[in-house]
Specification:
Elements: E1 7-12, H1 27-45, E2 50-53, H2 59-73, E3 78-83, H3 94-106, E4 109-112, H4 121-131, E5 135-139, H5 146-156, E6 160-164
Parallel strand pairs: 1-2, 1-5, 2-3, 3-4, 5-6
Helix pairs in contact: 1-2, 4-5
């Protein structure tokens, strides 16, 4: 059974805020992905079984893939795609859209925050991440934006926050 106490949500930067951009072969990106796996595995060992991902490009994608790998190796892991709106990937490259829809198809649950794009659908998604978990993992180093907003909301909601510096 999914409960807030057994749930972790995730927030992190899109490629344009990462030092390596979209180069996932960069050693720093590879190290980040390894760290995400180590954190997810430690959370699993502490009792977390349900993971929520906001499905943006960049760190959200890395986290989603990390949890899918963890799910192959550990019993009882579930993954939820928290999609701000159906149009989220509309302007992405074909390669990124294929990856996005493949990942969503592999998730156990999909929660659509809004039925259509609205100016605040991303903020509502961030609020959903902060209100439906007991732990937030954040790839964050203080830059202003949606990741900071989610970290701040999580703090106000009393979540344990695990920050990973990119």
């Amino acid at each position: 059974m999914v409960t807030r106490e057994t749930t972790c949500s995730f927030t992190g930067y899109r490629p344009e805020k990462l030092p390596w951009g979209e180069d996932e072969g960069d050693p720093r990106c590879i190290a980040l992905k390894r760290k995400l796996y180590d954190v997810a595995e430690a959370l699993y060992d502490s009792g977390i079984r349900h993971f929520i991902c906001g499905m943006a490009k960049g760190c959200d994608t890395y986290f989603c893939e990390t949890v899918l790998k963890l799910r192959e190796e550990r019993a009882g892991v579930t993954l939820e795609a928290a999609v701000p709106c159906p149009q989220q990937a509309e302007r992405w490259s074909e390669r990124d859209r294929r990856r996005y829809f493949r990942l969503i198809s592999l998730c156990d649950f999909e929660t659509e925050i809004e039925k259509e794009y609205t100016p605040d659908c991303m903020a509502k998604r961030n609020r959903y991440l902060a209100e439906n978990a007991s732990v937030l993992v954040a790839v964050f180093d203080g830059k202003w934006g949606g990741t900071m907003q989610t970290v701040n909301l999580a703090g106000k909601n009393g979540l344990e926050i695990i920050e990973i510096c990119p």
